[in-house]
């Protein structure tokens, strides 16, 4: 036991030394070389989490006598206080529902509703999206089975803050941070260079095959959504996709697992955040609600339609649209009755090209609100700090 602890400390120190060494060397380099080193080698994040990882699932399955303080949110962030959806009139409010077939057939009313959805809500549910319901069910079932495997089977895929790929239980590396009541699995579809089946689970036995197809279908859906969003912004259909790097977009998936929580009024499944990437296509649990979207000063609980996807605008599209489209804060509440599984697919710009407000959407009276920044640089903030409302995109607003 003792020896193991010492070894771990040694290991940690030697990694720290390596990092420090790199920093020293970086000081003597040109800016261009620094960038290369930072994105290729260190990414600014270490190989280890700052504290031992506790699986939320194992906490939920243990007989807790007290609720662990690390999951107790400060009173201002707790769900009950800010949730106003218990008012009968608010309960009827839901995010807009958009029919993709109707949109593609050029229905003007549907186009107007899409604009409203993107400018006012930042969120909509999409129906007639073309992804087979059987495939969606197989994907959901596969991940439920994965999370139901014994903890040891999942630990083989344990992730690190360096790439986040694999089985994880925290976002952000800040020591002592208040944590979210969820575990997750993170994997890449695109670029193909990052797609690595060995980093995907091998069980249940068909999960790789199912998720491979799911990934391909969602990349296609992402591309179609990019075209409708682009023309809805008054741009040519291909513009948004071109600004994302054309064929070289990024696509990845975070499967969220929210175990039952004995004190749902004190915790959050996922803290308030906006998605850093381009667009998010969420397959929520249609049996268990949990996602809440900020609308003005109200949190709206989304009532998911069966086999619909929930689409939301990410920070990169807010930036490209010069804040015409909104990347809206959202969070996930938990409950004591049912566990919940959701599949969040992120369609992102190529990670090393600068993203900035599109020239066509900028005028002298509507100057660019954001300086150019690559998605790699941008994502680093989130990966270091964890979910934090909209402070990321807002902190990048140019000071003019
Ligand atoms: C996310 C997210 C919502 C959900 O993964 O970024 O917002 O319902 N998920 O799990
Ligand atoms: Ni999100």
Task: Describe the 3D structure.
The chain has 400 residues and is α+β, with helices and mostly antiparallel strands. A hairpin with a 2-residue loop joins strand 8 and strand 9 (298-301). The protein has 14 helices and 14 strands. The radius of gyration is 21 Å and the shape is globular. The chain binds N-oxalylglycine and nickel (II) ion. The site of nickel (II) ion has 4 residues, from loops.
Strand content: 15-25%
The total count of helices amounts to 14
Mean pLDDT: 86
Measured between the Cα atoms of the first and last residue, the distance is 57 Å
Oligomer state equals single chain
Largest sheet: 8 strands, mixed
- What general outline do the C-alpha atoms trace? globular
Alpha-beta classification: alpha+beta
CATH architecture: Sandwich
Give the number of domains.
Answer: 1
Low-confidence stretches: 1-42, 81-90
> Can you identify the CATH superfamily?
B-lactam Antibiotic, Isopenicillin N Synthase, Chain
CATH fold description: Jelly Rolls
Strand neighbour order, sheet with most strands: 1-2-10-7-12-5-4-3
Cofactors and ligands? N-oxalylglycine, nickel (II) ion
* Whole-angstrom Rg: 21 Å
- Count of distinct strands: 14
Mind telling me the CATH class?
Answer: Mainly Beta
Helix fraction bin: 25-40%
Topology order in helix (H) and strand (E) letters = HHHHHEHHEHHEEHHEEEEEEHEEEEHH
